[in-house]
Amino acid sequence: MTEKLLLRVLQGEPVTRVPVWLMRQAGRYLPEYRATRSQAGSFLDLCFNPELAEEVTLQPIRRYGFDGAILFSDILIVPFGLGQPVRFEEGKGPILEPIEDASGLSRLDFESFELKVSGIYETVRRVRSSLPQETTLIGFAGAPWTVATYMIEGGSSKDFAKTKAFAYRDPAGFSQLIDILVEATGQYLFGQIEAGADCVKLFDSWAGALSESHFESIVIEPTRRLVTMLREKYPDVPVIGFPRGAGANYTEFVARTGVDAVAIDTNVPLAWASEHLQTRLPLQGNLDPIALIAGGDALDTEVDRILEGLANGPHIFNLGHGILPSTPLENVERLVRRIRDHRS
């Protein structure tokens, strides 16, 4: 058996306690991250500086001893690697030169993709050599639908109107973009695995914005294709899916994509998830990030509720979405201690 607790859960092995890591665990809530970030220049400069990206990946492991370390990077590395201009502005987030219709796809360049993203692979190699032996290294990418929204909207969006209109108006052109993203994302994850990632996660942060028919064609089918690609080349590397906001569509996602584990968001009821999902595969989740900010007895109550609600099957403790910048450090320490004391 592997010594990596988190990886053992993903591989279906029994464990003595619930492993824990947090989405965005390397981020602005940590003073050491803010200090490193100030050295880097832009956010993308930080992502593509292997020495600094290694440092911020390791910072939460040093401080809290999480069972998993997730590569410090961003889901928009894929469009950047395809040649789409991407930048990050303080207070605004990501800004991309938008692809407005199928004619814009001609600007994407797959030929130089591997070269442009190679710095990320170097970060994975460095982290792999520096991590404690018992810590699982998690690679990741954005799922095609979520990445497509940024590419078409030109940044963040509340309603994804441009992206949905593209998909309705020109299904063939939109499918072409999804095909490009499946291929690029698969290659990107191959590179992370070759560099040392133990498992990978697909973030479909905006999956809940789609209709039933589009969820089938734009979330489930591309994810299934990616899982198939990964399994054919790396059959022993688990894949975690995260169709955030999918609601009842979680069951079809689990049944048809082939993912090895699924992350559930805060809105998913534990009893439902235990009955309909956890009987099939390991679950990851799903503490409300605001409960982690609140701390105290309220945090303890929520942690215990989740541990007990998902006690009948394989479980990796995490948040229902990423940790927020205002999260007190002591609350994260309290969370980790509460989880580990629960099993002991």
What does this structure look like?
By secondary structure, this protein is of the alpha/beta class. The chain has one domain: TIM Barrel (Alpha-Beta Barrel), CATH 3.20.20. The chain contains 15 helices and 9 strands. The strands form 2 sheets. Strands 1-4-5-6-7-8-9 form a 7-stranded parallel β-sheet. It has a two-stranded antiparallel sheet with strand order 2-3. Helix 12 links the parallel strand 7 and strand 8. Helix 2 packs antiparallel against helix 4, helix 7 packs across helix 8 and helix 9 packs parallel to helix 10. The model has no long low-confidence stretch (mean pLDDT 96).
Descriptors for this entry?
9 strands, alpha/beta, 344 residues, seven-stranded parallel β-sheet, TIM Barrel, globular, two-stranded antiparallel sheet
Topology:
Layout: H1 5-10, H2 31-40, H3 43-47, H4 50-64, E1 68-70, H5 77-81, E2 86-89, E3 93-96, H6 113-130, E4 136-142, H7 144-153, H8 161-169, H9 171-195, E5 199-204, H10 212-233, E6 239-243, H11 250-257, E7 261-263, H12 270-276, E8 283-287, H13 289-294, H14 296-309, E9 315-319, H15 329-343
Parallel strand pairs: 1-4, 4-5, 5-6, 6-7, 7-8, 8-9
Antiparallel strand pairs: 2-3
